[in-house]
Amino acid sequence: MKxxxxxxxxxxxxxxxASCTDELTQIPLSQGTEENFYATPGDFIQARNAVYSVxxxxxxxxxxxxxxxxxxxxxxxxxxxxxxxxxxxxxxNSFYTSISSxxxxxxxxxxxxxxxxxxxxxxxxxxxxxxxxxTNPADxxxxxxxxxxxxxxxxxxxxxxxxxxxxxxxxxTAQEAAKIGRSPVVDIYNLILSDLELAIPDLNPSYDAxxxxxxxxxxxxxxxxxxxxxxxxxxYGIDGAMLGLNExxxxxxxxxxxxxxxxxxxxxxxxxxxxxxGIANKENVLTIPYTQSLTGSVGGNFMVEVGxxxxxxxxxxxxxxxxxxxxxxxxxxxxxxxxxxxxxxxGIATSYTVASGTYKGSYTLPVYKKYIxxxxxxxxxxxxxxxxxxxxxxxxxxxxxxxCTLHGGGGTQADVDGIVNQVRxxxxxxxxxxxxxxxxxxxxxxxxxFSEGTRWFDLIRSGKAITIMNAWKxxxxxxxxxxxxxxxxxxxxxxxxxxxxVPGLYDQNLGYD
Length: 513
What we know:
Distance between the termini: 47 Å
Helix content: 40-55%
Number of helices: 21
Oligomer: single chain
Number of strands: 6
């Protein structure tokens, strides 16, 4: 069983009501509780773990992994996710303009700000009391570095979904927060870059098994590289996270540092990437761990988001464990794979049979199965899977470097071709890459990282998101249920409840009701 370094839900209650509420303006701790709590190094460690828990796992069993599968994967051309039963993901894949009250959209906003609040408070208390509490300055520095990373992680997540959001860098009363409008993206990037640059020197390059899940120096560098790449992406004429800057060389440098560290390995078995866990898996650069069958609800359920109940039943997992309504894989995407592509074999179920019970029968609806491992299904039901989620894995680092190279950021065309051929060899398909273009690289990324939550962001970085998505709509949407996609749809709306909390404080993203 994996060591789980984050706080359990019961312990999180020590930090006040913010973990149990969806109000941005809540104060995580009362003044009295703050003074009583931050009295020992262990208290600071618990507070740090609480920031991890909310930043990565949300305020329940729905966390970052669930979020990217719903807001990125489901939004993309990988799935044709048109619900007929008014599921929570209704309108995400069909680009409704009325999704400001959508549960998933609001969660992305609220959970990130709850984590930011906790990080702000922890950083304040370190500045106020750290020298008194910690006998080893390195211990204080590492906790501050992790808090800065997590604040940067959450703000980067926010601006990729929403563009401009309030910039809050200290704990506030409800009255103070109610006066802060949406800040320019460039200001938020300034904080993100500052936090990561300050954090990286004080983060460990690696951890032992007992501390797996804490961010390393190279996990932070991976995020910083992706930040530079996103800043360099085409703006599409909207006020989002893409600034059209030419920072591909800066991104390449951060990613190359990860490569030359020698701590990560490009494995030869695609299936093992999703089976091996913890420090044994050398693909893990930035990973969110989960553990099954452990008191305190620390299992995950992200695979349920894009899973399908009959497939779960076909592999011996009981009823009510998967999604009742499927999110079918797009025909065009499925047809991209060669018949012998290991990635399709490992990650997609094209036919499956249920021997008995409610779903008895044979099925040919293609659905994702990449993360569904019955051996890591816990005793606590559908929300108790012990499957880790890789936010950024080593193959991603290499392919992001290739993308930077094609933008002139460093490396050579031979490097790009070599990386793509390496990926193809592992997939069991012909390694015939030569003079790989950006379009071809994104096609290879699509086959490599499906069901991992990267596709929507890849589309945006490609500069062709609108063209590709409208072509997908024309080919797949035979019932004409999907709106024509425009640039405004590359952002999500500010949640309705936030708009109504202080009328006139926020303006809504263009294109939404």
